[in-house]
Write a structure and sequence with these properties.
heterodimer, A: alpha/beta, Rossmann fold, 10 strands, B: alpha+beta, 5-stranded mixed beta sheet, 3 helices, 5 strands, 25% helix, Mopterin_synth/thiamin_S_b (chain B), Beta-grasp_dom_sf (chain B), MoaD/ThiS family protein (chain B)
């Protein structure tokens, strides 16, 4: 275990945290001891990475297999014009290193699949010998979203869910410390591929993922601090055009295929994630 | 009796509107859904399975609460109810 007393530079850097009773030096130490895996370094991932790095989250993993495109820059604010063509994880990791040397940033230029997720989240990947406390789903497709949900629910790892569509966002938190609920309690299976158009087809208001990603970062910080009320059992729906928020209660569904009374899905390897994320027939 | 439907994400585009007021919605949430979908075939295609049942990932709210936490589509209506349909979204 490293010496977790805050040094003089850290006391200055985090002074606006440390001065508050709700955080204090103990809370700041929890953030510095915390580890978070951000899945996706795009619109949602950008503010999540920026604020978690600024907050001093000790180990920040970033997974993405894309390169930065100029059309990303209207909303993916962790990347700059000079980063076009670079892997997103490299660009994002450089941002984190430049912002806060306290953060051990790990860039994983790969896709999260049922073959890679255990290595990525569980911590059997390369030099790392320990896993992550929290996974942030900042991905852009249902396959990754259902995989993150199923893995984290089955493994008892906290998951922050955020997703966007044009002017609207959905955000919630699954601590996964009990019997659910999980994402499949709300949406048992994914829409058939092609049913819901993506950002490239429909467009997206650039600032929208900023708002939703900042809520995800807020939730992660609170989770690591052990303070405040999480969006646990609540799905927050945000409409940028009406500037309105609605909260829907989310309860464990006894028929949920992952956390229900008689779950069909006992392993991520039971599921075909490329279609509607249901149990494979083979 | 009137009830209002609020439609989220791509469902609003399929319906052609984000808010729909029904003056004669019927007795239950299911009746109000049928009335909503009757002259909106694109929305009906989006939210219903081929057998006419509601797709599992489409959620129905009555006054902010998932109707599955009461009597589902059999849940009774009251004047002024706010109903909502919301799907999962995947963008990031």
């Amino acid at each position: 275990m490293t010496d977790l007393r805050l040094d003089a530079t850290q006391l200055e850097r985090y002074s606006r945290h440390v001065i508050m009773d709700e955080v204090g030096p103990e809370g700041q130490r929890r953030l510095l001891e915390g580890s978070v895996l951000v899945v996706g370094a795009g619109g949602l991932g950008s503010p999540v990475i920026q604020y978690l790095a600024a907050a001093g989250v000790g180990r920040l993993g970033i997974v993405d297999d894309d390169v930065v495109e100029r059309s990303n820059l209207q909303r993916q604010i962790v990347h700059g014009d000079d980063d076009v063509g670079r892997p997103k994880v490299e660009s994002a990791a450089d941002y984190v290193r430049a912002l806060n040397p306290d953060v051990d940033v790990r860039a994983h230029e790969t896709r999260v699949t049922s073959e890679t997720i255990d290595d990525l989240v569980g911590g059997t990947d390369g030099e790392r010998t320990d896993g992550y406390d929290v996974v942030v789903d900042a991905s852009d497709n249902f396959a990754t979203r259902y995989l993150c949900n199923d893995y984290c629910t089955l493994s008892g790892i906290a998951l922050s869910h955020g997703a966007i569509y044009r002017f609207e966002g959905q955000v919630t938190t699954f601590p996964n410390d009990g019997d659910g609920p999980c994402y499949r309690c709300i949406f048992p299976e994914a829409p058939e591929p092609g049913t819901v158009p993506d950002c490239a087809t429909t467009g997206v208001l650039g600032v929208l993922p900023g708002t939703v990603g900042c809520i995800q970062a807020t939730e992660v910080v609170k989770y690591l601090l052990g303070a405040g009320e999480l969006l646990e059992g609540r799905l927050l729906m945000y409409d940028a055009m009406g500037l309105s928020f609605e909260t829907v209660d989310v309860r464990r569904n006894p028929d949920c295929p992952v956390c229900g009374d008689d779950p069909e899905i006992e392993s991520i390897h039971d599921v075909g994630y490329e279609g509607s994320c249901t149990v494979s027939s083979d | 009796m009137t009830v209002d439907w609020k439609l989220f994400a791509d469902l609003a585009e399929h319906a052609g509107d984000r808010h729909v007021t029904l003056d004669d919605p019927g007795e239950t949430v299911g009746d109000a859904l049928e009335t909503l979908l009757a002259d909106r075939p694109a929305l009906a295609d989006r939210v219903l399975e081929e057998d006419g049942t509601l797709r599992s990932q489409i959620n129905v709210l009555r006054n902010g609460t998932d109707v599955e936490q009461s009597a589902g589509l059999e849940t009774g209506l009251e004047d002024g109810d706010e109903l909502a349909l919301f799907p999962p979204v995947s963008g990031g």
